[in-house]
Structure prediction request, 366 residues.
Amino acid sequence: MAAGLGAESADIGLNLLALGILLALYDVAEVFLKPVFGALSDRIGPKPVIAGGLIAFSAASLIGLWAEQPAMLAAARLGQGMAASAFSPASSASVARLAGGKTGHYFGRYGSWKGLGYAIGPLLGALAIIAGGFSLLFATLAVLGLVVAMWSLISVPRLPPLPRPRYTILDVWRQSTERSFLGPTLVLAAATGALGAAVGFLPALAAREGLGTGGSVGVVTVLAIASALIQPRIGRLRDQGKLLDRPGMVAGLLAISAGALMAGLLPGAVWIYGAAVLIGLGIGVSTPLAFAHLADATPTERLGRTMGSAELGRELGDAGGPLLVGGIAVAAGLPWGLGALALVVGAASFAAPSSNTGPAESTRSL
Prediction:
């Protein structure tokens, strides 16, 4: 959806700022609701939250069947974001509970499968837009969400709710401001902000180079494939003790910064695709390490709430990234917007947590 908006923005009358707002709406909805649904998954178990969110996603996608105007596109994106705020934190909490002592390996695989979705989605979206416009794209998303919801009801293991200790407001504040939570959450926010901006603006940049809808959307596919291929390897290296969290996260964020600078400063399709590879690799390195660090540092009975709160940080980044690039691009040009993104992502590397946190430490950390 986001890549299609980027590639077709000129044809549907969107300037760069309007494109940034449309890209951000999905994530604005998630900002407010992910912690709520994460806590709900702790209370009732993650499986019903996952299935319910997918069904709601299908319902919201039906709005897009009448998406002839930007206002209807905005309504559909907002509804999809509200639905995704349910199944996303519940899914990551499920992965953390199923991982045992192999959080790096499990989150590497989890991120890889998500990356495959990012790779396949833009290609299917391009085909749908070419064949039937945004109406066919939204219809495809509605059917896909319903099919995956039925699959999840059959195949996702049922993880029962766990006893939850009582926490005061002071306890919640302390847990939410510890470095073991804030550090990886800021890393996730920076990486996801770069992803949100890249998914929308790299296709727009490619379209300006005359690549057409297929070639423009293919930039996102290349980014997603790079991310998907590296994530399982990063997870295994972490579990084997060959890769520490902090240097891995720092290297990933710096790769993203380098990719953003490449896209902004070097014209031509080859450099745009090279930037997509660098950004994808950076996301693929930093994201599983940040998620695994969070999972190892969190008591099991609080996984849903913590993952929901961390996803809140991600969505702030995912909303802020497109708005940052779009706002600066309107004022000074797209290269300056991408340069600002590179600066912010590079600065986030200073927030990376200082060491790995093993499961044995999770009862006394966040």
